[in-house]
Amino acid sequence: MCTTVGTEEIIILSDDEDCEDDISCNEPSVLIVEVEDVKKSGGAVPPSALDEDLVITFSRRAEVLPHARYDCPIHPFTPTDCEIGAPVAANQLMCDQCFCYICDKLASSCEMWCHSGVCHCNSHKRSEFWSNHRNCSLLGGLKTFNLTLSDIDSHLRQAEMMLHSFRLSLATQFSSFLMGNMLEQYGVSQSIQKCRVFDYTPVYEFVSSFLNKADKQDDRAAAIMRLGAAENFLLHFHVSGTFILQSPMANAAEAKLVLLQRVIASVQRQMVMADFTPEFIHKLQDFYKRFNFPTELKSMKNSLTVRLWDDVLLVSVLKGQNVSGIRKDKGKKDVLVEQFAVVLLRTELLQQQHRYRELCRYLRVVETDDSKLSLQKVQDLIPFFMCMAGDLGSALSSLLPSVNAPASRFTPQLFLFYLRVFKTATAPKLAVSQPAQLCSTDAAWEPIKDAVPLSHVPLVRFALRVQRCCSAVFTDSQCWTTLLAVVNTLAPLQDPSPQFLQEAKDVVTSILNDQHGSNIQIPRFFQTVYPDQAMLLLVTGALCLRILSAPLSPALPVLNTFKENVWALGWLWGSLSSSPERLRSFLLEISKEMESTTDGDHLLPFLCTTVSTWSSPTDNWDQQSSGPLNYL
Ligand SMILES: [Zn+2]
Ligand SMILES: [Zn+2]
């Protein structure tokens, strides 16, 4: 076949397959003929050639491209199966473009070319013996990972070289550990100077620095270096001397555990997060399983048994086709049990990829053998992930199921967090692995895609339901202030009629006392005439119960939220007066709080009046005619 390349040269390609059966075929694979030279050399055209399709007009010796020795166009090659003793026929001859098939470098620089016992000049690709030999030689230490030449790139080759020199130095380091140090080097008294101590610390540090190097490599190279190192240091053992060093990594067994944990954590992370092919992951897993684990590390033997992302059960759970996490296949039961570290990694990745719904489905069913308590914390994030998926309504219900409600484990901060998310349909931009992180972030809050803020009614019902199941939220003053700020809107609400205020007492009481189920049922009629006022009174009624139950501190910020709706505060005093003793002590608490507050400008004049009136010793608590409303 002929083709022109630019205007300068003609490349004549021979079809390699044609020579399939003739290994000694002397046709070169590629010849380059420079056109200009050809013109100069001229040449007669044989008349007979004019009749052919392909006309040979010039003839010239071609420049020879690099080739394997067995392909040499100049020196004939004689193939044999596995002759390594001495060159067969003229196989030792080479042109200046002959390459050694085994070393993959110029034959002239091959040190084993005619070396008896490993004679490379006889090698060729049609012999299984020589092909294996080539693989071993080119793969080097990578062969033990069952990698093939097609897996190898420059990063892996680099990793192999680093691993090789690491192994040599590690052997030296370990043997000097085994020799121990004389105690005199530690400056102890002469009588015991002849004793030896064995300090693994330098070996530990050497391995650590190699793992640091691995961290900086390309993903696959890093995995190979980590596991390659582990294979070696796992073989180390501790030697105890008379004296034991207190430094943490002086003991080989303890240091090995720390190192292995580091390797496992890194490789697990790669298996979940990196873009590895399933084949490559299986090779890493198989390599790891072949380790000789000492008894104390046996429990880590399965640490790299991580489900791939294309695992049938995992995929069906993520897609919502399997909601049990259990799959039965030909009588075998597969349960979605994962190591906790792996759960965390998947949680991290799915958040990065904004696959929140899949993450929720996964967390609902996944089980762990270890760290059940920690798993609970991650599962408590499901409502947050539902929010991030844009479904605030479902998020709200998932906080308050009838059993084991995540809201029952709220801290006040977490309650305030969700209240803000529901009210604004915004959330901080961050990836989390437990609820506490939601509250301790500086991340900017951004609108949640497709989410609609919840209106007052569901917000209030949510807050009241949380107060029922979570005493931390019920008790906390800040939670009350924030909730009241939601219903005490900035603009003053119109004063409702006295009749409404009066009737509201019974309605609010019955709503709050209704303990059937965890839900809060608000009768429709209550919301028809004064809907906003009704919500305010409902929360105020709940606050009344809170104040009656125990001291509330600080109380001023809570009461301050009523400044635009003094009528509601009056309604609160009225409700509190059902328990005169408690009202008296509450007012005392308030006046103490006022005295200790220097920032008096913030205080409401109406509150001062009320408190001083009610706190005065001459006051008659039981006098119904001077009910609290009269004082405002
Ligand atoms: Zn050659
Ligand atoms: Zn060679």
Strand order of the largest sheet: 1-2-3-4
Query: What summary fits the major beta sheet?
Result: 4 strands, antiparallel
Which secondary-structure class do the elements indicate?
alpha+beta
Number of helices: 24
Distance between the termini: 106 Å
Q: Nearest-angstrom radius of gyration?
A: 41 Å
- Low-confidence spans: 1-31, 35-43, 615-632
So what's the overall shape? elongated
Strand content: 5-15%
Number-wise, the strands total 13
Mean pLDDT: 85
Which hetero ligands occur in this complex? zinc ion
Helical residues, percent: 40-55%
Short overview:
The chain has 632 residues and is α+β, with helices and mostly antiparallel strands. The protein is 46% helix and 6% strand.
Structure description:
Helix 6 packs parallel to helix 9 (340-352), helix 10 runs antiparallel to helix 12 (382-388) and helix 14 (412-424) packs antiparallel against helix 16. The strands form five sheets. Strands 1-2-3-4 form a four-stranded antiparallel β-sheet. Residues 1-31, 35-43 and 615-632 have low confidence and may be disordered. Among the domains are: 2-143, no CATH class; 149-300, no CATH class; 307-379, no CATH class. It has 24 helices and 13 strands. The chain is of the alpha+beta class and 632 residues long. One zinc ion is lined by residues 67, 72, 74-75, 94-95, 97-98. Residues 67, 72, 74-75, 94-95, 97-98 line the site of one zinc ion.
